[in-house]
Amino acid sequence: MGVPTEPKVVGSHDDIGTIVAVVRFVLEGAISMRGASRICGIINSIAGRNPFEYPAHTTVQNYIQRVGLYLLERNNQRHDDWIWIADHTYSIGTLKVFIVLGIRLSHFRSLGRPLQYQDLTVLLMLSVENSNGTVVKQQFDDLAEKVGDPIAILSDAGSDLNKATELFQAEHQNVIPLYDIVHMVSRMIEKIMKPDAIWDAFRKACCVCANAVRQHKLGHLKPPKPRTKARYMNIDREVQWGARALQILDRVRSGDLNKRQKERLPLKLVEEKFGWLDEYRDSIKQWEHLSLTGRQVISEVRRHG
Predict the structure, then answer these.
(1) Disulfide: which of 169, 176, 183, 249 matches 152 by Cβ 3.0-4.6 Å?
(2) What does the CA dihedral 296, 297, 301, 304 come to, rounded to 10 degrees?
């Protein structure tokens, strides 16, 4: 059984069955566009058809873009219970993309699980060069004329989005501003961690350790590279590394290793490279608790709103 064949689409060399198949391979099967293209050829070969009659990966990309354009242009239904999710993303030179996703409150309440991409509708997508509160507010106004006033606007509370939401709310007082939970938790963690001199010293010690064991026998235990952007959204990696490294250090000290492990983790060498973690033992436990609390809060809000 091969890729279903149907009459060819006007303006295309491929039939509708092939087009639907390759688009679904990418969107539902999480397969690359090149992979979707080749799989289509393999299926044709198995079915006894010409194995070389399949769309190129660039054609697959074109089909997906056409589907996206169709969905974007048709999403103009007016409802009175939209929740907007707004953000700027994908900076290319001086340009960045302003996107507003939407979900109806009635739909969200029926999910009983965290949001997924397929739950959301792309309401607006614009390439912008200049963005401030006034500009974004005008974009909100134009969108409201098209799809109706939202009941809530969710954002990361960036300066431009925050100001735009305030200006929009002044004219639409029933609109509720919502703060994205991931950014909210990150800001709260930042308030706790940023003034902590021990945390700052730990991160610097991790950098020194990483340089010391890079291309070394113990290189596989190297600390993760600290994030320079959104660092307080990503403390989990560093904290979890510290906790795991301490476990390894304690196990090496106890001698609870087989012969091969003892050869790979000689006590003297492990002590030399990772013994410094002892002075952060109590702090790492506290940071683990903070990190876990943040993850639990995010999970709860994502699931139950």
Answers:
(1) 176
(2) 50
Q: Using the predicted structure, report yes or no on whether residue 15 has a pLDDT greater than 60.
A: yes
Contact 239, 284 (CB under 8 A): yes
Angle at 232 between CA 90 and CA 294, to 5 degrees: 110
Q: Which fold does the domain 75-179 belong to in CATH? A: Nucleotidyltransferase; domain 5 (3.30.420)
**H/E stretch holding 185:** helix 181-193
Secondary structure (3-state) at 18: helix
Tell me the C-alpha distance between 303 and 111, whole Å. Answer: 9
Select from 103, 181, 212, 116 the least CA-distant residue to 147. Answer: 103
- Token representation of residue 305: 């709103």
For 57, which DSSP code? H
Per-residue pLDDT at 77 exceeds 80: no
pLDDT surpasses 90 at 285: yes
Q: Whole-angstrom Cα distance, residue 138 to residue 129?
A: 15
Q: Which residue has the tokens 């999710």?
A: 85
Beta strands per DSSP E along 17-135: 82-92, 95-104, 121-128
| Burial of residue 30, with CB atoms counted within 10 A of its CB: 0-12 exposed, 13-18 middle, 19 or more buried | exposed
Quote the tokens at residue 114: 């965290």
- pLDDT (0 to 100) of residue 76: 67
Report phi then psi at 52, rounded to 5: -100, 0
Residues of each domain in the chain carrying CATH 3.30.420.10: 75-179
pLDDT digits (tens, 9 = 90+) for 168-214: 999 998 999 998 888 889 889 999 998 999 999 999 999 999 999 88
Question: Residue 78: its pLDDT value, please?
Answer: 84
